[in-house]
Amino acid sequence: MSMNHIRPWRNIERRKSRQIMVGNVPVGGDAPIAVQTMTNTNSSDVRATLGQVLAAAEAGADIVRVSTPDQAATTALRDIVRESPVPIVADIHFHYRRAIEAAEAGAACLRINPGNIGDQQRVRDVIRAARDHGCSIRIGVNAGSLEKHLLDKYGEPCPDAMVESGLEHIRILQDNDFHEFKISVKASDVFMSAAAYQMLAEATDAPIHLGITEAGGFVSGTIKSAIGLGQLLWMGIGDTLRVSLSADPVEEVKVGFEILKSLGLRHRGVNIISCPSCARQGFDVIRVVETLEKRLAHIHTPMSLSIIGCVVNGPGEALMTDIGFTGGGAGSGMVYLAGKQSHKLSNDQMVDHIVEQVERRAAEIAADKAAE
User: Fold this and answer.
1) Tens digit of pLDDT for each residue in 231-273?
2) Backbone phi, then psi, for 208, in 5-degree steps?
3) Rounded to an integer, what distance in angstroms lies between the CA atom of residue 179 and that of residue 170?
């Protein structure tokens, strides 16, 4: 639950779900909303795939999914799992034996698509492998691959069909006394996804994995995901998420965190508040922000930084941030620390100075936490 008694309009009451473990990462309950991504390399290439896993983990990913389409991929998975700093989810489609092999290789979770995994006996075989090897399972319903009997019943993919598919497979898991599962009901259509997830949230207490599948390229996919996932998260729905972009997996992680940060549900790194710039700006705001985003990427400590080009909104924004810089005149601006005016600074020194201030503040926060 995200509660703010001073500003109650920021409160988000999260849906009550039961908690499972994906490796060493808790999902559901009162655990932080986990951010996931997926590699897009040839999974049998251990070096390339592991490289993406490590980059995603460095960017903040809690969990990484790896596609396992063939036996070469599940064989490589054993080495990937061994070297990965985060739990690995094996993505399974069509070949249920790949799920069994992935469980044996050490996957923390098996993502199965009910629409293409096969009959109930094959699902039971996957359940047995998951139980024997300590895996959790994600039931991954996708509007693009629903079961034939549901398409015949409803005529087309729709929220009711997606939720019915998910609940049918929840029953299979529960009938086999398997409860370490989470579920997703994804569509590329924002409206369909949102409606399906709202129905699902009322129908089960299982942890929910959020996503707008096949959302598109970096810009369009980010916007679709922010709209779809943002409204669900605001309603308190969602225990873990993946932003699906035709882009580098690291970008998916960054966007996921930004969505969570904007709602106050997760905090990691520097939250830069900056103006779009205009003729009043006292320095090149866009260039400075681009530079600072790169220079401050190594900071994981949550903090806020305002970079405002002029005094219209600059002082007000700086009052609400840990560190701020407001453009002035004559090639200089004002530095704010902890919401208060601190000192003037020339524009040509601002980037290096702000980086120093952020690093110093991060060290102070870390020291305070260690003391606690």
Assistant:
1) 999 999 999 999 999 999 999 999 999 999 999 999 889 999 9
2) -110, 130
3) 9
